[in-house]
Amino acid sequence: MSQHVFIVGGSSGIGLATARRLLDQGYTVTIAGRDSAKLAKAKVALRGTANTLRFDASDVSTIVSGFAEIGALDHLVLALGSSKGGGPFSAVSLDEVRMGFDEKVFPHFACAQAALSSIAKTGSITFLSAVSAHWAMPGSAGLGAANAAIAAIVPILAMELRPLRINAVSPGVIDTPWWDFLSANDRESVFAGYVAKTPVGRIGQPDDVARAIEFLISNSFMSGQTITCDGGIGLGSS
Length: 238
Ligand SMILES: NC(=O)c1ccc[n+]([C@@H]2O[C@H](COP(=O)([O-])OP(=O)(O)OC[C@H]3O[C@@H](n4cnc5c(N)ncnc54)[C@H](OP(=O)(O)O)[C@@H]3O)[C@@H](O)[C@H]2O)c1
Fold this sequence. Notes:
The protein is of the alpha/beta class and 238 residues long. It is 43% helix and 18% strand.
């Protein structure tokens, strides 16, 4: 029987690319997100092959009922996030930083906790962190703090929850709707700046990260690791 993967944040970007890749590999996939129109569009993009669940990972009662509804699963992928908390340290508001944690760290934490009663002990949980967690980029203290919190729990949970495998991927700049908080022009110039700094000479695509997630799910000797998938941008710009 095929293994069941639940992707929270599977209706867009990295989560959607992961769903596509895993479906192609024969996994059974359930994708979740808050917006039912986005889920329906994703289902069409996946040629109807994924199950969908409307689910708000920032709401504990929805999380409990959602995990009860989907039942047994082998792997959990936490591909939801937040763009809140960016900006110069001297100016970023504490409310924005707090929102970044509310929209990413606590939902990741709560979903991983909720999965424990239904996830196979031979399975895995994969979190999405970001290079901001370990990349000294001015203006990313708030984002970096939230993503570092995610990265920090990975090895701890890998020990505490063993034999369940716990890993993360830390993406660089990936072309997804995550960047929609910028205008088209700003996004274009930000991307051009990153391309100039990135050794591979391009922005990442969602499937670049999906490949790393698939590797972590399918390799039963991987646990406690965060894979950086950033085209080398974290190496610096000299
Ligand atoms: N794109 C990048 O450059 C980049 C770089 C580094 C790290 N990351 C991280 O990678 C992860 C995926 O990002 P992405 O670029 O794929 O973003 P995206 O395209 O905006 O996708 C985010 C997904 O999460 C869902 N989501 C958001 N809040 C949710 C909630 N409370 N409950 C359930 N689903 C929720 C969204 O659907 P709904 O809005 O319908 O809920 C959507 O399906 C995030 O953790 C992000 O921080 C991204």
